[in-house]
Task: inverse folding
């Protein structure tokens, strides 16, 4: 399968990816690329990373057969329980990998961008665990909306810098982190939070979170005696989705579904569905699908899920879309919240609102899949994170909280 | 017209070229034409028109603020071309600085064609490295435009040679590891970087940017570089001003000081 060998040596997935960055960052990205390739080939690094995932993060996460949900949905649904990992989401895999790589490169400081604060908390966690200085850039508006996560990061010893430029949200935090990095590359690693950005980040992040799919594939073979009919994941930047997709890409019988945040609905313009509603362009270091106006100015994205509220998507998803290997569809806020409630009530699991998009999409495709297959489909849904962080948003949505 | 004309003229006068930057459409389309014209009248040799962009990662807070104001005012890429045409009509060479996405969306060849027709000399591309510039290399050749890529103190010798090989008109040496914005001190890394560039090519003029804010610093940078590029300090004149008239007045004063600065040292 040639797809598994992508990106090429310069970070391209077909026409997507690459490096659209200031020359000042090229040396740092080359250094990172070389260090990553050496680490990947070093059994000691691999063993240390796997040991951390096992002993500290709680991997492998369970592949859980959701029986009550399945009975209601008319499909056999298995949930990949990334919500049970330390920090409550798949993101711990990425931050541990990058923090370990930072140590290996002899750097002492990591910087990170964060939207709602989940990646910031994860980065602060890994930095505390591996004794690194940590600075997190966060949009000023987000620091106000997510004060609890700001407190968590500070408890973990990280410095949180509110960003007051532009829309004062995730993309501005990312811009500011890039600016810091241009000025501090010698001693600093930029701990990017998703499988996006300039080469080698999309590949490196994918590989660090790729255990999700490798585990799920092995667990499927063991539990089902075969592979599932479909794998479903939510897509913002796309790290959890690429993490679970990648191992299944060569398995042609396994349909891959990425569910983007539709927000109020793609037709309203208040959406974060970059592949569905966006067009090809360049943002944050890579060519990919971007929500933009006719002049290439980035549009503000909208979603009830802070973790999916981003106006672009990782370049490998852009490629999987164009090549037809994966199918991307939008899931609106209301549809996601209905799935959120269903999972709470049938399984006693409060999912992250991000993950509820994956579940909602999976529920939607069941009739079509069942018809195609002539039987009840088997679907693995990546439950990428737990919903504790969303209690406030969900509580207000359902009228439980004022 | 190539920007080389400005560098040859300044070289004959034994001084560096003064390049002044202003975002297109800031504070308005007409206001930016007035600002750029005032800069030319006060002695700025080359006008660098920056296409405002929503996510300008190489720029500091002053340029971002001015760009945000321009975008909020509704400036379009097509307006930028009108501004370039108006400023080029003053006789000063106009170079355009742009992040890459607006050009991709306009169409690389179409933009090159329209830029050449408007009298622009070429592009400075802060987030486009030659490695990804296939379409731009072709379009700039087809329409006879200059190509200014950036080099940095962290560029390896191999990358420096590769990048300089793709430049035409002048090369932009980023003097500091950091974003744009006026600073107390210019960088000591700049003269070293200029020497490294000259060791590769003696012919290509070198512009040094990032950090220059007054006449003394312009003189200092002009003593070792072929071009002194000033952005944030000039733009701040307009950002900080209570009204457009006083902004233009401050802009003229600083432009004249910088123009005197590049003439204060023998080269």
Result:
């Amino acid at each position: 399968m040639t797809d598994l060998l992508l990106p090429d040596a310069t970070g391209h997935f077909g026409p997507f990816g690459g490096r659209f960055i200031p020359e000042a960052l090229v040396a740092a990205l080359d250094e990172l690329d070389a260090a990553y390739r050496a680490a990947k080939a070093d059994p000691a690094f691999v063993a240390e990373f796997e040991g951390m995932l096992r002993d500290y993060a709680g991997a492998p996460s369970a592949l859980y057969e959701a029986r009550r949900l399945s009975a209601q949905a008319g499909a056999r649904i298995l949930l990949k329980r990334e919500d049970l990992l330390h920090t409550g989401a798949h993101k711990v895999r990425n931050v541990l990998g990058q923090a370990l790589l930072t140590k290996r490169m002899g750097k002492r400081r990591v910087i990170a961008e964060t939207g709602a604060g989940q990646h910031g908390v994860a980065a602060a966690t890994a930095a505390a665990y591996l004794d690194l200085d940590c600075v997190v850039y966060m949009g000023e508006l987000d620091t106000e909306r997510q004060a609890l996560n700001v407190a968590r990061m500070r408890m973990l010893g990280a410095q949180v810098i509110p960003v007051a430029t532009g829309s004062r949200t995730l993309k501005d935090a990312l811009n500011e982190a890039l600016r810091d990095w241009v000025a501090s590359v010698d001693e600093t690693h930029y701990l990017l939070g998703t499988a996006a950005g300039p080469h080698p980040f999309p590949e490196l992040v994918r590989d660090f979170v790729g255990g999700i799919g490798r585990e799920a594939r092995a667990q499927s073979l063991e539990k089902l005696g075969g592979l599932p009919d479909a794998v479903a994941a939510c897509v913002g930047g796309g790290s959890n989705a690429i993490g679970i997709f990648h191992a299944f890409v060569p398995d042609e019988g396994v349909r891959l579904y990425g569910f983007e945040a539709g927000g109020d609905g793609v037709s309203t313009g208040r959406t974060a569905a970059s592949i569905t509603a966006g067009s090809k362009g360049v943002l944050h270091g890579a060519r990919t699908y971007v929500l933009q106006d006719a002049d290439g100015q980035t549009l503000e994205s909208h979603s009830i899920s802070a973790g999916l509220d981003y106006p672009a998507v990782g370049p490998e998803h852009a490629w999987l879309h164009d090549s037809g290997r994966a199918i991307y569809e939008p899931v609106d806020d209301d549809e996601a919240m209905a799935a959120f409630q269903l999972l709470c009530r049938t399984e006693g699991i409060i999912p992250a609102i991000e993950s509820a998009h994956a579940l909602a999409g999976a529920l939607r495709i069941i009739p079509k899949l069942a018809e195609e297959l002539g039987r009840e489909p088997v679907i693995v849904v990546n439950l990428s994170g737990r919903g504790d962080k969303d209690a406030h948003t969900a509580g207000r949505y359902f009228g439980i909280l004022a | 017209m190539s920007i080389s004309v400005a560098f040859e003229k300044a070289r004959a006068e034994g001084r560096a070229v003064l390049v002044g930057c202003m975002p297109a459409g800031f504070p308005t389309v007409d206001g930016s034409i007035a600002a750029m014209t005032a800069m030319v009248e006060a002695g700025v040799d080359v006008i660098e028109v920056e296409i405002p962009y929503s996510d300008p990662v190489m720029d500091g807070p002053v340029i971002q603020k001015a760009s945000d104001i321009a975008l909020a005012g509704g400036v379009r890429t097509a307006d930028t071309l009108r501004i370039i045409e108006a400023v080029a009509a003053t006789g000063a060479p106009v170079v355009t600085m742009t992040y890459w996405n607006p050009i991709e969306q306009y169409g690389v060849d179409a933009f090159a064609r329209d830029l050449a027709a408007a009298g622009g000399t070429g592009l400075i591309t802060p987030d486009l490295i030659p490695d990804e510039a296939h379409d731009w290399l072709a379009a700039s050749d087809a329409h006879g435009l200059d190509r200014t890529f950036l080099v940095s103190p962290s560029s390896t010798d191999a990358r420096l040679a590769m990048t300089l090989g793709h430049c035409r008109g002048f090369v932009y040496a980023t003097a500091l590891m950091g974003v744009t914005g006026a600073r107390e001190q210019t960088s000591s890394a700049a003269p070293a970087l200029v020497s490294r560039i000259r060791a590769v090519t003696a012919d290509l003029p070198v512009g040094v940017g990032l950090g220059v804010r007054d006449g003394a610093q312009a003189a200092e940078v002009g003593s070792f570089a072929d071009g002194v590029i000033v952005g944030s300090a000039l733009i701040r004149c307009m950002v900080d001003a209570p009204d457009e008239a006083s902004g233009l007045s401050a802009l003229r004063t600083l432009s004249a000081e910088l123009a005197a600065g590049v003439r204060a040292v023998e080269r």
